[in-house]
TrEMBL record:
Family annotation (SMART domains): HTH_ARAC
Lineage: Bacteria, Pseudomonadati, Pseudomonadota, Alphaproteobacteria, Sphingomonadales
PANTHER family: ARAC SUBFAMILY (PTHR46796:SF6), HTH-TYPE TRANSCRIPTIONAL ACTIVATOR RHAS-RELATED (PTHR46796)
Keywords assigned by UniProt, alphabetized: DNA-binding, Transcription, Transcription regulation
Name of the protein in its database record: Helix-turn-helix transcriptional regulator
Amino acid sequence: MPETLFALDADNYRDCQNMFRGPGRSEYYEGDFWIDETMPVEVCARKRTSGSCTIIETRAATRQFFRRTQRHIRTNASDLSVLWFVRKGGLKYSNRQGRLTVAPGGFLLTRSMSPFFIELEPQVGEGLDVLHMTVPTHVLRGFLRGEVEDCAALDAECRAVASAGSILAQVFEEGDALGADAMQLLTETACRLIGLALDEEAKARPPRRTLSEQRLDDVLRFIEIHLSDPNLCMAMVGEGCALSPRYLSLLLQGTGQTFSELVWSKRLEMAKEWLGRSDPRAVAISEVAYGVGFKSTAHFSRKFKQVFGLNPRDYREREGAGRSARAGASHKPHRLAVGAMLQ
């Protein structure tokens, strides 16, 4: 029979922080655990061990909260992964990257070596029913092709999740009859199923960007936003993106251009597009020059001709003539078709 890990009621819930890891405080890892005192207090957690893993069933009518911080990690560095299978109610998970909610039938992987916050939410009229298994991360790593993430979710449509959850439920309920070897085999099978599902989900995701790639995106976005500012310079970008001049220079090496080359090329491309689609009667060349961050029309004209082979005025006239020719050609088939119909 599974053994009781902890049970909370109206008489003992105030001691929940000292009870949630069970006798001897041997399960889970250090963290802050509390419950919603405004709800009827009814929480029961039972456990069954299988090798180095522990399967825990939590049923409750009460909302529960758990928080693990850097302070807990420093004092208790147990690296455990938890496989969560939500059967009734909901699980809300938050960390520095964001927040997600796991509905009934869904799955969540969490890891103890990164700060997080969890809320277990009973379903109205149904309560909470969650089956989860703690696995030493070095053991779980053997079932994954990639690294064990801080958090990973799979939805109820994933058949591997349903199969793994059913296997662990069988181990939890029938472990005495199965025996230690069969329990171990089934537990490993469940981990392998989850590993396969997580690998497939990871393949479908866009490749994870490195920190440098994210920082470079921030830099390029800042430059794009401030491109029309004639005072745009590396110091301004570094201050706006909270980067040192040296690190900013290293990031820009990834573009294959210096800061000046990057800014001037973007300004000239913007000017080229603007000239190509604007009406000379509405927008003067000087307005285009100042609008993309040049301080003088003469400098703009020299740079434009140097790159595109035409001065801005000639380029605009050529593009305007091309638009007129294309517009005329687009009408000719229509007139011929009408003429043919009249004949």
